[in-house]
Write a structure and sequence with these properties.
22 helices, elongated, homodimer, 605 residues, two-stranded parallel sheet, two-stranded parallel ribbon
Amino acid sequence: MWFKRWLLGRPLATTQAVHERLSNPVGLAIFSSDPLSSVAYATEEILLVLVLAGTAAFHYSIGISIVIVGLVAILTTSYRQIIYAYPSGGGAYVVAKSTLGEFPGLFAAAALLIDYVLTVAVSVAAGIAAITSAVPELHEHRVGLGLLAIAILTWGNLRGVRESGKMFALPTYMFVGGLALVIVAGLGRALFGAPVDHPLPSVSAMEGGVTLFLLLRAFSSGCTALTGIEAISNGVPAFRDPAPKNAATTMIWMASMLAGLFLGITLLAHIYGLVPREEETLISQIARISFGGGALYYFMQVATMLILILAANTSYNGFPRLAGLLAQDSFLPHQMRNVGDRLAFSNGIFILGLSAAFLLIIFRGDTHALIPLYAIGVFLSFTLSQTGMVQHWRDLRGRGWKKKFAINLTGAIATGVATVVLAITKFTHGAWVVLVLIPILIGMFRKIRWHYNMAEWQLSLTMYDRPKSPPPNIVVMPIGSVNRPVIIALDYLRQRAQDIRVVHVDVDPEETAKVKEDWEKWGAGVPLVILPSPYRSFLEPLLDYIERVRQESPGGWVTVALAEVLPARWWETLLHNQRALLIKAALLFKFRVIVTDVPYHLGPY
Amino acid sequence: MWFKRWLLGRPLATTQAVHERLSNPVGLAIFSSDPLSSVAYATEEILLVLVLAGTAAFHYSIGISIVIVGLVAILTTSYRQIIYAYPSGGGAYVVAKSTLGEFPGLFAAAALLIDYVLTVAVSVAAGIAAITSAVPELHEHRVGLGLLAIAILTWGNLRGVRESGKMFALPTYMFVGGLALVIVAGLGRALFGAPVDHPLPSVSAMEGGVTLFLLLRAFSSGCTALTGIEAISNGVPAFRDPAPKNAATTMIWMASMLAGLFLGITLLAHIYGLVPREEETLISQIARISFGGGALYYFMQVATMLILILAANTSYNGFPRLAGLLAQDSFLPHQMRNVGDRLAFSNGIFILGLSAAFLLIIFRGDTHALIPLYAIGVFLSFTLSQTGMVQHWRDLRGRGWKKKFAINLTGAIATGVATVVLAITKFTHGAWVVLVLIPILIGMFRKIRWHYNMAEWQLSLTMYDRPKSPPPNIVVMPIGSVNRPVIIALDYLRQRAQDIRVVHVDVDPEETAKVKEDWEKWGAGVPLVILPSPYRSFLEPLLDYIERVRQESPGGWVTVALAEVLPARWWETLLHNQRALLIKAALLFKFRVIVTDVPYHLGPY
């Protein structure tokens, strides 16, 4: 326990959860680390595809980048409408579910969960690549360094979100400022300075000439620049009032920066005639030439790493929150809904960290290997959001709805086309994994929901025909010999005068009110004790109470009775009894305490 | 359950345990497979040491073999006395403990347990080598084949010992007959026949000349021929009346066969000038030359394999029985004492099989690698037995005790010297493992005994100050919401009229009588139900009874209360609660059954 405290900090009371509202510059820094950081690898990914047709094909990168910037503009306009329509935060799951129905919602949710994991893996891999570009000796340790970064992120997020706000502002602006300086310096040097003293390697075509398919593949790879662009629209309530307006303004700023930096980098790479290399990232090459090495170059690499790590952190907000929403709707185990005593969704954070670490190990920390899996999920959820908004405006038909309808329709068509392009061009390079995983996840969601529905029906009191008097009980005690434990157990069984106290820990006032009301009706006169829990912990107030009861009757027993739900299939136990398990583990070695499980068997269905 | 039945056969009632008494020829076959089978490798092991001084040193093998046969004679004479002194079976543990005290007894027990495991590993490895000598293609699969043999042995023994008796006679006599034929044919061919058409390889010295140490090492390796020689003395009660006389006679027969075959093989190897080879065993080479290949040769290899596998089987009788004796004396966990429903010590059989498989894997199924660990334990227990007998005669001083005293003294000195020679010459080749393991095992035995002593003291009722009236009980039931399981649990807790039935399964009539008597005194008027158990199973009669109680009160609950001992240290839980665990596992998914653990915490000591 002390270890947990030391690691995660003291618990935070529910009342401490008042939102820390963000100013626009801080909000920009927090929500933009994900999209802005993708500038660090998007251009390189485009060139990595074009290089297959030889360096001669590199001039296509300019055109491709302009198309992508066009997509940024369309998406930004579309998302500004979502900000106003869903001021409480409209993730793709919420939008698609409320406008298109459950199945599209789950589709978006599955795509997003996968992409959150990939965001962590890709960003961490790219962040480590920024460092190993500057210090090549570390290249062979990149998996270990990546795992370390994931461990730190997971730990930081288990400590809770309160600290993370301000941490973000600095690295984001360091990166944006630094990269702007790189571009200005680079363009300046190219236009007015000495000719660049850099060998221009020329690679000849490996896969034949430039085909349409190759250009589309390059476009698909470049689309990673758009990942995370929707972050601001998910986080509207975090802005100061008027939140939607501030968020919409911030979105414009973010999009402008993204477009400017992305175009600038692509242009510089073209001017310098750079070729992607295994040991050094493209923007490391650019920064090295622009700054001519030295302190500024290293500063740039550190800033790149920091913003990428912080981009990974965006998923640590998004994944657990989405998992929590899904758990709320019974599509994931209910324990994903639990907010830890530091006000963080601990279970979701933990699962995200584990999955990302798993991916990083499988793909050996290689950004390029992960990229083909990436973005497809993001674009699927873009398309579903936009389509949802199209439906939204058709249903609503408010003032000037046709214009809004047209904007989102454009967004839906643009992202839809991009999704199809992505799926086709990257299918054999890894996108198939995502396309297989999504239906599996959807199946899982529905299976879990179905179980909870069936269980709820079986647990409900509405149809319960309570026996007139409590059913009889026969106690069987097998003994091997007559000894102290046997006699003590016998005397425990012989006592009749029982003092029954039903206890409810007040984690959620609404739930507590319901329990009180229900108990009036069903409690058969047995008293109900309500235990306050300022830190939302279920266990600690209960253990304290049991301890007090033990003190109350020094020689006596305390029987802790647990009404336990036993499902018919083994995997369903994962969906129940988490609390019962915790209680049993905590009481295992307590003296004079007896735990009795009263099982309730769920029938098969 | 049906799977267990199918695998192990229907349970056997305790009354079916009447001993199947053995005639002398059958007894000889059963108890001699271990010593006689060692002829299959003993000569080879001598030559493998002598070859280090070149083939020129091979003629020493004759002298060494004669010394070993001398040891056989001394030991046989000594053990005949043990047969008469301990007609109920005198293993080294029993003899050493009753005459020399607890520590020498544990010393012998530790040495024996290790050697039982080694007997299985060595015999199986040598048995597989007999087959791979005939079919070299199987050489690379020797570990897999060895594991298969161990699995079959373990399975056969879990089925119980009843079937194994007659199975033994045939292979033993096949081997003895076949080998006698090999020797006769071989000697005939050498004396009267054509000169052997076999290249005589000549190996020059690898480790300098013949030293005393080398000769002693060769002697040590040859001592493996003596392993198992004591088997008959452990199994006296299995013989027909007059058991001691029949056993003693059988012992002479066994010793004569052993001496004859061993000398014959050594002589033939010398006459043929054979050199041990990696791919083919020495006796395979001898048989091949004597029979000139063909069906008789293959028959001989199969017989060799069979007797070696059956030699391994000897340990499957010895190890579990010794472990059971140690458990009876609380030196091993009490569950080693349990006789399964097929009248076999299932736990011991299982542990032996696992340990031998482990050894076989570590040493890659190589007989020569295992040999240095072998025999030292056997000789330690020989020495302790003989020394114990020396003490026995000094204490007893019956008619003609001096002669008996002198015989056992000779045995003790001879085996003592051999033990020291073994320990020194094989120390660096692996004997150190055994010499390290023995004190560890002894420490474990004593630690376990100490725990049981302390626990017994804490469990005893003699000093128990029973409270005048049963201590009070407060029931705490934590609830999250009010639903069916909660209300059902509440009604369970609210009922007061309890019908308590204390149940004892009559596995051992003596124990049951004690329980009845104790219950009179301590039972506080609560009825005691005795359940008969013809198959000694604890669980099945209990589950049947619980089922009957469930039928008896169709709508009601059955609470199964377990008085559970909770030790202070985790490893101590291995020494308790085995039955409680079984009961809980069996009742886990039973409807209307509630298991209540009433813990009894052992204090630290």
